Amino acid sequence: MADAVARLLKLGRTQAEVGRMLGRPKDQIAMLAAVAKRPPAMRALGDRVGLRTLYELQSAWKQDAATVER
Q1: What share of the chain is helix, strand, coil (3-state, %, to 5)?
Q2: Minimal CA–CA distance to 28: which of 37, 19, 39, 36?
Q3: Model-level pTM greater than 0.90?
Q4: In the predicted structure, residue 67 carries a pLDDT above the cut 80
């Protein structure tokens, strides 16, 4: 879902438009857009953890990648 959102945004759609298209709230689209840029180490987690958890992990990873990856 995150990759699809990223593609739609790249095509010039706004987060609000994408949200309406997918029937999701704009804040969820913003999180999906953010996690689309996640590092390879976190790509495998996409199917096993919730969106909020993935978003928070990515935010923490930006500050201290080594600790989060451990």
Answers
A1: 75, 0, 25
A2: 19
A3: no
A4: yes
